[in-house]
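REVIEWER CHECKLIST
Item 1: Sequence provided? yes
Item 2: Single chain? yes
Item 3: Sequence as submitted:
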Amino acid sequence: MNRAAARAEIFRKEPDYAAFERTLEEAHARIAIRILSYVVMPNHFHLVLWPSRGEGEEVSEFMRWLQVTHVQRWHAHHHSSGTGALYQGRFKAFPVQGGFSHFQYPAKVCRYVERNPLRAGLVDDARAWRWGSLWRRLSGSPEQRALLAAWPEGAYPGNTSWAERVNRPQGAVEEKALQASLTRGRPFGDPAWVSKAAARMDLDHTLRPRGRPKKLDKT
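Item 4: Structure as written out by the authors:
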């Protein structure tokens, strides 16, 4: 995900959202990474990307082209070149435990992403938010739906069941864990996998409490 610098509103009207989606489609045409879910909000966006095994570099390449191209086009359209950064930085990301037997974790992330407009009070029903994968999957044309990757066989519950699930509040514990992954880059999955993934990817610091360690009492 990435957020606008100073939390400014960069998607102000429908053409702004549509322009980002066109750029997303172009990025996908160039680098065919699988897109499970996405949402574009007034001052940020989320993407759930699924690289093939051993192709993690795809994520950085895809995100670099998407953001650089979108920033250039946004400034050109708004006649604001040279006025400063559009986004806060590079982008934030965290790894998610996958595989068919553990696909509940990517599903939870997709649900969190697609609930964003509802959580923010922009709509009363998540299906009504035009600028994201939920609308595209349920109401988009065949060409629009083609942007989204298929889930593993048997993992997707069907449009009606999925929409109902997205519209239901997520549990407080699950939402807190997802927010921690978003803000700190912490791996998301079952505890054993999270520990192994953090060690393998040099992300141990994301599991430790923030702040200075407590001083030991001298005796």
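Item 5: Key structural point noted by reviewer: The two ends are 47 Å apart (CA to CA).
Item 6: Recommendation: ____
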